[in-house]
Amino acid sequence: MGADTEKLRRAHAGSLIWHRRSLDNGTYTGFLVEHRNTVIAGAGVLWQDLPPSALSEGPVRAYILNVYVSPEHRGRALARHLVDVALQECRRRGVTVVTLHASGAGRPTYARLGFQPSEEMRFILTADDPS
Q: Considering the entire predicted model, what is its pTM?
């Protein structure tokens, strides 16, 4: 358990640095919902600079991430609201392709918003990979 805790601590510290840098340079936009001066929900958009394709003639695509609602405020459509706000910002910027990774719990919400399942594969490189 100690190794997992240390790994999470390092990931959190790195995440804080990444968020500050990305917010400052404009490659990430965050949206928050507050209740009584406390953040109760949030979401973000990572603005990806990618080459034009048949799906997107523009060079920018959006990746929605960090969608979270505190447990005591779930069931109030806050995640849906935040994703709607993110999609509005995408439209305002002329972005036509928006992706995200959905948890099992979030998948129905995203499907109702019009997100379609897509095919993706992942390969995780580790320090002890032989190749």
A: 0.89
pLDDT tens by residue, the chain, 131 residues: 456 999 999 999 999 999 999 999 999 999 999 999 999 999 999 999 999 999 899 999 999 999 999 999 999 999 999 999 999 999 999 999 999 999 998 999 999 999 999 988 888 898 776 66
User: What is the dihedral sign for C-alpha 97, 30, 9, 5?
Assistant: negative
Q: Could you give the CA distance from residue 60 to residue 97 in angstroms, rounded to a whole number? A: 8
Cα distance between the two ends of the chain: 29
